[in-house]
Amino acid sequence: MKVSHEPTAPVTPEKDFDRLQAFIAERRSSKEPRSDMECFERELHEYVVAAEREVLAEELVRLDVDLPAVTIEGEVYRQVVRCEESYVSAAGPVRVTRSLYRRGSEGERTLCPLELRAGIVEGRWTPLAARQAAFVVAHLTPQEGEDLFRELGNMNPSKSSLDRLPKQLSERWEAERERFEAALRGEETVPPEAVTVAVSLDGVMVPMKDGARTQKRQDAKTQGKHPCGPAGYQEVGCGTLSFYDAEGERLSTMRLARMPEKHKATLKDTLSEEIAAVLEQRPDLTLVKLADGAKDNWSYLGAVLPQGIEIIDFYHACEHLKAAFDAAYGENSSRSKAQFEKYRHLLRDEVDGIEKVIRALCHLRDTHPRKRKLATALAYFRRYRHRMRYAQAQAQHLPIGSGVVEAACKTLATERMKRSGMRWRQAGGQAILTFRASTKASASRMAGSCCPAPTSGPSRSQKTSCYSLNERSIEVSVSELHPAS
After folding, report:
1. What interhelical angle do 314-329 and 353-367 show, nearest 10?
2. Which of 54, 213, 299, 471 is most buried, most CB within 10 Å of its CB?
3. How many domains does the chain have?
């Protein structure tokens, strides 16, 4: 049954839209220019956003339901009060009169049909305002966000409001993350020109408020050690899924990040689900597993994921090669540089390059038996020789560097979470990572960005409260609003 009522828009002595039209008419009729262009531009903008707020208020009122009782998801709710409320829109505060309904006794929470139908976020933000605020806080601190919005002259949320919003949205997302992510995967399409999918795993240390920094420092002193290093830091896990065409050009990348967790369990589970969904859709894709030599990376990439081509990041391998020649010939000596350049190219470009590198390191180890770094480097190349077939990989136009996931570590975590004086807790940090992953995603995927918003419904009597993710939506609950008998 459809809601049948005609809401009345608030009436003001002189509407903001009329004032905007009068201002424009006055300027168009004037032959004299305004001497202060900045002042004029600011004044014009104030008229425009005021008119925008007026139109938004009228539209919100149309979404209100003023009836004695309504049925929401099969439950009868009766009207308890009509009152005014201010909402934060992208143009600033909008004040409207709305109805509140309650299902039972006074102790129960009230529901507002207007908010359900409009997709009001956390009881105060319009969908666009919430999206803009979350985007800003993903890149700037709440204080910088407040300053930015004040300068722009549209909405003017406070620092505390900007701090709370991503945490509130992230809490909702995390509560049903697996279901939301599964729904997203169902809508993903692999680029048709893709022939390779590369999965990478890495991490970056971030300062934590609950990272036991003081205790770690004290333990070091107790053991007679000088306290140094990143005490109180823990590792944020980052993962990427990249698609490449037949020429080896990267087409798109999905970026994921999770706050510190033992063995990166949640991140690995998510990557496994993503890979499974991709290969189910395109079983013809070549799977490449690409990372540095960290044991935790390969205990997952090598043992858990489906069979694929395993590659140690070429540039990490080069770091070990450089350390070996520096140990043998002196750090940054001319001979060290020459040998490094020679064997770097052999390792990358020749089919048996890794074997030549190992033979050269064996000779250096025997010549300099006291140089421990030589033995360490030799053990490294022997351990991963089966993952260092770089010439073969290049011949197939496969990636040999893990720069994509290293860049993800920087863009998702380092740039935002390692600024001066920052320390993070699990929930707040995950909120930022989730939204940064969404804003760094390609246009086809905004993984983890969540703002409640309505989907389009067949009529005014039926609307859906859902989480809107970029251009897509995940249904959370259907709210049918109609008069209750």
Report:
1. 30
2. 54
3. 3
CA-wise closest residue to 116 among 189, 64, 42 = 64
- 116-136 average pLDDT score: 95
Say if residue 56 is in the same domain as residue 160. Answer: yes
Residues 256 and 321 in one domain: no
pTM for the model: 0.81
- Within its chain, how far is the Cα of 9 from the centroid? 39
Does position 92 have pLDDT exceeding 60, yes or no?
yes
The stretch 83-93 carries a mean pLDDT of 97
Q: DSSP of 329-359, one letter per residue? A: H-TT-HHHHHHHHHHHHHHHHSTTHHHHHHH
Are 472 and 329 members of one domain? no
Which range has the worst mean pLDDT, 226-230, 313-317, 397-401?
Answer: 226-230
pLDDT tens per residue across span 350-384? 999 999 999 999 999 999 988 999 999 999 999 99
Decide if pLDDT at 9 tops 50.
no
DSSP-based three-state secondary structure for 201: strand
> Looking at the predicted structure, is the pLDDT value of residue 222 above 80?
no
pLDDT exceeds 60 at position 336: yes
Q: CB-based contacts of 179: which residues, under 8 Å, 6+ apart?
A: 474
Q: What is the CA radius of gyration of the chain?
A: 29
176: pLDDT confidence band, cut at 50, 70 and 90? very high
Domain shared by 348 and 374, yes or no: yes
The total number of residues shown for the chain amounts to 485
Looking only at the bridges linking them, the beta strands covering 472-480 and 482-483 are: unpaired
Reduced to 3 states (helix: H, G, I; strand: E, B; else coil), residue 185 is helix
Structure tokens at 477: 């609950």
- Whose tokens are 């940064």? That residue is 436
Helix (H, G, I), strand (E, B) or coil at 224: coil
Q: Would you tell me how many other CB atoms lie within 10 Å of the CB of residue 11?
A: 6
Q: Is the dihedral of CA 431, 175, 131, 82 positive or negative?
A: negative
Is 41 inside any structural domain?
yes
Q: Which two three-digit tokens encode residue 15?
A: 């509407």
Task: Specify if 182 maps to a domain.
Answer: no
Q: 70 with 481: CB under 8 angstroms?
A: yes
